[in-house]
Specification:
Blueprint (H helix, E strand, L loop, with lengths): L1 H44 L2 H31 L2 H12 L5 H25 L8 E7 L8 E8 L8 E10 L2 H7 L4 H7 L12 E2 L3 E9 L11 E5 L11 E5 L3 E3 L6 H5 L2 H14 L15
Antiparallel strand pairs: 1-2, 1-4, 3-5, 3-7, 5-6, 6-8
Pfam families: ADH_N
Organism: Homalodisca liturata
GO cellular component, one term: mitochondrion
């Protein structure tokens, strides 16, 4: 056993010597390669190609400077009043003297000033921005980013089929938790790119259900009137309903049942649709196969 260990140690020592020798040879080869590369770069830098490259660059710089001088001289020439007067006389004839030209220039300046003044007077003043309270999410990091804010910009009627609703009741749905984690973020960013009521990605108002009173309608709204009690559910890519005011399309809104209070009505549109989908679509229950039976949803 001792003899085996002795021979093994000899082999290991021999292997160490070979590895060390190979490492030294490789290091020398790398040093030689670097020296050759340095010499090659130095010779290239001092060669005729370098001089030719320098000449080409110098020529391009000279051409650029000459072109800049030509542009400067041309600009000075064509903005000279004397030159302009001579060219204008050549165009309209010699009967136009300097007084007529000056009067025309003064008239042009006065007309331009009057036009700008009239345009500024007729300009539509920007709408004053009003703020409202809302429950929002300030980052897509989960429910910890939910915040109650009092300085959210109030939405307004921007489309003929818009309906402005004064919120009387709203609810939080499971989909709002997903929205807090970034659900429908990409789709929301694309669809709301040209929505004037969306000012940036965050803060985002939460809530999908709403019950309230119509306060304003667009010109194309025919099914609703101001003062109607309504309810609706909005899709995940639109601003939410947990705010003082919400603006939605007419297609999402319908009249609230008179027998329901606002808080009860606000709990049904989105959640009720989900429950109906589970019962009628997923479980395929109907009056034919579920009559006189009880189910827990």
């Amino acid at each position: 056993m001792d003899e085996v260990a002795f021979h093994l140690s000899q082999r290991l020592e021999s292997l160490q010597v070979v590895v060390y020798s190979a490492g030294q040879n490789g290091l020398r080869w790398v040093e030689q390669l670097l020296d050759k590369g340095y010499d090659l770069a130095l010779s290239t830098w001092n060669s005729e190609q370098r001089q030719l490259l320098n000449n080409i660059i110098s020529q391009k710089i000279d051409l650029t400077i000459q072109f800049g001088k030509q542009i400067s001289n041309t600009t000075i020439k064509y903005t000279n009043p004397t030159f302009l007067y001579v060219r204008l006389t050549q165009l309209v004839g010699p009967e136009w003297d300097q007084r007529v030209v000056m009067a025309g220039c003064v008239g042009l300046l006065v007309g331009t000033g009057i036009g700008i003044s009239v345009g500024l007077c007729l300009q539509t003043p920007p709408r004053p921005v009003s703020l409202m309270k809302a429950v929002t999410v300030t980052g897509f990091t989960g429910v910890d980013a939910v915040a109650y804010m009092e300085d959210v910009v109030t939405p307004t009627i921007c489309s003929p089929d818009d309906v402005l609703i004064q919120v009387r009741g709203g609810t939080v749905d499971p989909v709002d938790i997903k929205i807090c984690n970034g659900y429908a973020r990409v789709l929301r960013k694309q669809l709301n790119k040209y929505n004037p009521n969306v000012r940036g990605e965050l803060p985002l108002v939460l809530g999908r259900d709403v019950a309230g009173v119509v306060r304003d309608i667009g010109a194309a709204v025919t099914r609703l009137e101001v003062g109607d009690e309504v309810w609706c559910a909005v899709p995940p890519w639109l601003p939410g309903t947990l705010a003082e005011v919400v603006v939605v399309k007419q297609q999402y809104v319908s009249h609230k049942p008179r027998t329901l209070a606002f808080d009860g009505a606000a709990s049904l549109p989105y959640s009720g649709t989900v429950a109906w989908d589970a019962v009628a679509v997923k479980a395929k229950l109907s009056v034919h196969n579920a009559s006189s039976k009880r189910y827990c949803v």
